[in-house]
Write a structure and sequence with these properties.
By secondary structure, the protein is of the alpha/beta class. The chain has helices at about 15-20, 25-40, 60-65, 80-95, 145-155, 175-180, 215-225; strands at about 5-10, 10-15, 50-55, 75-80, 100, 130-135, 160-170, 195, 200, 210-215, 230-235, 250-255. The chain has one domain: Vaccinia Virus protein VP39 (Rossmann fold, 3-Layer(aba) Sandwich), CATH 3.40.50.150.
C-alpha cells in the first residue's frame, strides 16, 4: 500500500502519522524550524550533549537535531507506538545515536488504553545523565499531578547545568480577557472558561485535556516542589495579549539546581 510522505531533510515522513498529533505537512517544516530556533536561543544544545525529548511524535524536532548531535545522544519518548516505530526504522537506522522508546502511558487524548498512569512514569535513563530536556505541546495536555511527576523525573535525570524547555498555556486575568476578546482571530480559539482548581483552567469541560492552562504562581509551586529552578517565563502568541512573543504557546525554562 502506498503511503503519502513528506520529504524533510533527507527523510520521507508519513503524512498520516503527522496528523495523529493534529498538524500536517503544510506546517511541519515551519514548526520544526521555529522549535529549533527556540531551543538554540534558550537551551543551547552542544554536539556532545545527552538530550531527552518527551512527546517526540514523528520526529519533527529530532530530525534537525541529527545534524547537530555528533558525539552526543538523543532519546525521544512518546505514547504513539506507530510514530516510535517509524522513527526507529527511519531515523535510528541513519543515526544510531538517536533512539526512540514507546511508553504506554495513559492519555485520554492520545492513548486512552495506556497501561501506565502519568503519575507513575519513570523514564529509563540513569540519574544525572541528561543535559537537555524539551517538550513541545505536552504539558498543555496534562493536569498538575502528572506535570509534577515529570518534573520530579527531570530533577533526577539532569546533570549539573542541565536545562528544560517546556511549552505551556500561562494565564492571568488580563491574559484571559485578551484571549476571549481575540478568540475568533487567533488560530486556536482558546478561552479557558472553566476552572479546574485554583491556578488551573480548562478550555473544554467535555475534553479536559484538550488544553490546560496554569497561572505563573501554579508553575512556581510545581517547579519549587520538584527541586528545579525556574529561569524564565516566555510569552506566547495564543491569547493575542502580547505584542512581542516567542512562539505560539507560552513556555517555561527550567534549570537543575
Amino acid at each position: 500500500m502506498n503511503v503519502d510522505t513528506y520529504p524533510y531533510m533527507g527523510f520521507n515522513v508519513p503524512v498520516d502519522l503527522m496528523w495523529q498529533t493534529g498538524l500536517g505537512p503544510d506546517s511541519f517544516a515551519a514548526i520544526s524550524a521555529a522549535h529549533f530556533a527556540q531551543l538554540k536561543k534558550w537551551t543551547p544544545i552542544k554536539s556532545d550533549h545527552s538530550v531527552l525529548e518527551v512527546g517526540c511524535g514523528i520526529g519533527r524536532d529530532a530530525i534537525p537535531l541529527t545534524n547537530l548531535l555528533q558525539t552526543g545522544r538523543y532519546l525521544g519518548i512518546d505514547v504513539l507506538k506507530a510514530s516510535i516505530e517509524w522513527c526507529t526504522t527511519a531515523i535510528t537506522a541513519k543515526c544510531p545515536n538517536f533512539s526512540f522508546l514507546h511508553m504506554d502511558v495513559r492519555s485520554s487524548l492520545y492513548n486512552p488504553a495506556g497501561a501506565v498512569e502519568p503519575t507513575q512514569v519513570r523514564i529509563p535513563l540513569a540519574d544525572r545523565s541528561v543535559d537537555r530536556i524539551f517538550l513541545f505541546s505536552v504539558f498543555t495536555h496534562m493536569l498538575r499531578p502528572d506535570i509534577e511527576n515529570y518534573l520530579s523525573e527531570f530533577k533526577r535525570l539532569l546533570n549539573s547545568g542541565g536545562l528544560v524547555y517546556a511549552t505551556s498555556f500561562i494565564y492571568d486575568d488580563e491574559i484571559l480577557v485578551a484571549a476571549r476578546r481575540n478568540s475568533a482571530s487567533t488560530p486556536w480559539s482558546l478561552t479557558f472558561a472553566y476552572q479546574h482548581e485554583p491556578g488551573c483552567r480548562l478550555n473544554d469541560q467535555n475534553v479536559p485535556l484538550h488544553a490546560v492552562a496554569f497561572t505563573r504562581e501554579a508553575w512556581r509551586e510545581m517547579v519549587g516542589r520538584s527541586g528545579l529552578m525556574l529561569r524564565e517565563f516566555l510569552p506566547g502568541k495564543w491569547s493575542g495579549y502580547y505584542q512581542q512573543y516567542e512562539d505560539g504557546q507560552d513556555a517555561v525554562v527550567l534549570a537543575a539546581c
